[in-house]
Each structure stands twice: as structure tokens, then as C-alpha cells.
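Sample intake sheet
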Amino acid sequence: MPELPEVETTLRGIATHVTNTCFTQITIRNPRLRWPIPQEIVSLLPQQTIIQITRRAKYLLLSTEQGTLILHLGMSGSLRIVDPKSEYDKHDHIEFCFANGRALRLKDPRRFGAVLWTHDPIEQHPLFTHLGPEPLSQEFNAEGLYQLSRKKTVSIKQFIMNSKIVVGIGNIYANEALFASGIHPKRAAGRISKKRYEKLCKEIKRILECAIAQGGTTLKDFVNSNGQPGYFKQELLVYGHKGEPCIQCNKALIEIRQSNRSTVYCRYCQT
């Protein structure tokens, strides 16, 4: 599914096309996504100008003077800038047309994505009130992570994937960051030293920044706003490499399941 780097890549791809331009028409072709698309946006958004596009966790926020349009790509969604006269793809569920002659379409085969609208300040929306800091922000640091982890028996992988602790660290990047840090994914979060948390924070930031620079990780469905795949998959050292030799010790990587998700690690290099 699209994770933080893929969402950030999408944001950067569409921002130049739609920032400071206004909506002219909204066409809802299928309102049944994760939550029903609010019909009010069809009449409410035209003539409103997008002031800015930002990201919070894996949500894209298109801000106007009247409120904020919230977009989420779900498990298989993508946003594309297209000519509004072009043919719809089978799973194009909503189209936003703009005064500059361009259109933004949400394609989502599995329909786990979301299109929502709020008049209230975004930090008051129920989806955002309990979110932790952004992983690339100064608010996310080893000291804070260490303090939050004290007496926690949950595994470190589950701990860093908890959006109340830090947002946007999905399964792929959790695997990679723990390998780069030499931390066993099943180790209890509360049994990790501050020094090791310093290494983990550093690696989380480095890996996410690298993934963003390369346009994200293409697995099954992700493409960016131009329909092009990301290339960070070529840099993955453990995820998807079950049974292959570890690049550090040459022993076979193993795969386990944690909270119904795949975890690949080296039993010799990660302790």
C-alpha cells in the first residue's frame, strides 16, 4: 500500500498543478470508498481556490478558505493529473477539474481510500487528534521515543508502527529501519537503550528521505501523480528478500508474521 514516501511523492507531484487554482467541477463516479464521499463537495467546492497542499501522516490536505479536502490513498489508490477529456480508467472514482484546464483523478481498485471534507481546523478532526509527530520533523527524536517506550512490552516493530507514537512508518520501512539499526523486530520496546534509539531514529529519517528522493517503493499498485513507479524497491535490503543472504553476514534472512504483517530480518545481525 502507499506509505509515507509514496504519499509525499504524490503531494509533490500534484502540488505544482493545482496550488493557487480553483475547482470548477467535481464528478463523483463511485461514492463508496472507505467512507462515503460527501455529496456536498459537488456544489461546495467549485470556485474555491486551493491555498496549499500539505500532508499529515498518509493524508493529503487540500486547504481552501472554506475548509479542507482530505484525501487518503488507501491500499491501492493513486492520484493522477490528467486532461479532463481523457477516458476514465475503470477504477477512477472521483475527478476534480480545475480552472487551469487540468483534472485530478483518484483511482482506487480496492476502494479503501477516502475523500472527506471538513470546515473545522484540521487538527480538530477525529482522524488527526491522536496522531504522533511526523518522522522527519524535529519533534520526532530519540529522547522522546525512549521516554515513550519505558515499560512497554510491545515489540519494537509494533511500537514504531503505532501512529500514536510516530506517524507514517509503514511495514516496509519498519523492516528496513530495524535492519539498518541492528535491532531484532521482536525485542520489547522498553528493553532498548537510548543509544540504540538514537541509531533507530537516524535510520528511520535516512531511509524515508531516501525513499522520497527516489519516488517511493513500487510493490503492486503504487504509481506517482504522473503514473510512473517509484524506484526505492531496488534499495530494499530485507523486505521481500526472505531466504536470500544477508548483505552483512551472508546468512539467510528469515520471515515471520507480526500482527498479520510480514517481517523479514537477520537473526545474526539483529539482536
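Comment: Helices lie at 4-18, 40-44, 142-149, 156-160, 171-181, 194-213. The two ends are 28 Å apart (CA to CA).
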